[in-house]
Amino acid sequence: DDLLPEHSYILSNNDSEELDNDIECTFASDGNEDSRDNVFTPLREQDRFLPIANVTKIMKKVVPENCKIAKDARECIQECVSEFIGFITSEASEHCANEKRKTINGEDILLAFSNLGFDNYIEPLKNYLKKYRQSVKVPTSNQHLQQPSDVEILQQIYYN
């Protein structure tokens, strides 16, 4: 199989039983499709995971005020949530590639949830996305309403 620029790959030693020996890398390209000088560069942890402060803030919203959340619990949830987002995004990205599109939109994310068996989340996500889009409409100089892209919406949700 061909490796695609700007995608993540897991390099694994098949002889090893340890998953910790896998190395996650991103395939860096100089932009030249014909170039054979492409290299693998390791992903930094902050590039792989959601910010721990954001994960902690969300976790604190669902536990009683007097509860403390252990560091290893926060880190575990951080890794799981990041993996889940990657799982959904990968499915949505594959759908876009099949349709020869480069931009993932909200409908692609909803379709990915459905394809992966997370049907219970679809209606709440549709409602949330609709309300969020309505709340972020900004008038331009022409007084027309301009909406941010779905990617900007997702970035706002996950990183704020």
Distance between the termini: 37 Å
Mean pLDDT: 76
Q: Kindly state the number of beta strands.
A: 5
Structure annotation, total helices:
6
Please give the largest β-sheet.
Answer: 3 strands, antiparallel
CATH H-tier superfamily of the largest domain: Histone, subunit A
Count of all domains: 2
Beta-strand content bin: 5-15%
The radius of gyration is 19 Å
**Assembly state:** single chain
What structural category arises from helix and sheet content? mainly alpha
CATH fold node name of the largest domain: Histone, subunit A
CATH architecture of the largest domain: Orthogonal Bundle
Pfam family, one: CBFD_NFYB_HMF
GO molecular function: DNA-binding transcription activator activity, RNA polymerase II-specific; protein heterodimerization activity; RNA polymerase II cis-regulatory region sequence-specific DNA binding
Family: Belongs to the NFYB/HAP3 subunit family.
Organism: Cuerna arida
